[in-house]
Amino acid sequence: MSWIVSTFITVEGLDGAGKRTLVDGLRRQWEADSVRVTTIAFPRYGESVHADLAAEALRGEHGDVTDSAYAMALLFALDRREAAPALRELIAGHDVVIADRYVASNAAYTSARLAEESVSGAVAATEWVRTLEFERFGLPVPDWQLFLGVPVEVAAQRAVSRAEHDASRDRDRYERDAALQERVDEAYRGLAAAQWVSPWRVLSGDPEPGLAADLLA
What we know:
Layout (H helix, E strand, L loop, with lengths): L6 E6 L6 H14 L4 E5 L7 H9 L11 H25 L2 E5 L2 H13 L3 H18 L7 E5 L3 H14 L7 H4 L1 H16 L6 E4 L7 H5 L2
Helix pairs in contact: 2-3, 3-4, 3-5, 4-5, 4-8
């Protein structure tokens, strides 16, 4: 399959939307066709001090850090900046690289938090994330951004069930905030409709025949 031009794909959605399931499914399909594929997940908990600080803050540590949407976004952005050299190597060495969450997560969550204050604040946050991560930090731009647009209540139920069966995946402050999750879903749909930064595809969450082939067409 050497004819394939390296493709960088990101998978976005609420917690419980099924991102990991989709990433694993696409990987298996491409591996079966001898496509050189690898995956990466953000935030890189356990690998990045910035990601770990953000996780700790979302569980009540580090004072009032979570009070600032921009402070939290900066921690997540710095995690990706640290990973950028390794990510570029992965893209250069594989036909396909799939990221479970990427820059759009920062844009969606930050704008959703600021949407409570004003529409203009939410729009400004989205542009701030784009400028910071893609321009200043020089992160690779995805060829495709896939949004798993499952109903918010379905994603929430899955997240609760997951936490009940796996203590390592307990829900943090963002995941427990139902109103925030509603706004994040709206923010994601707005980004997809605007084809923010690069092409988007909205998925229902159910298996879509031919998706793997379509993404490399």
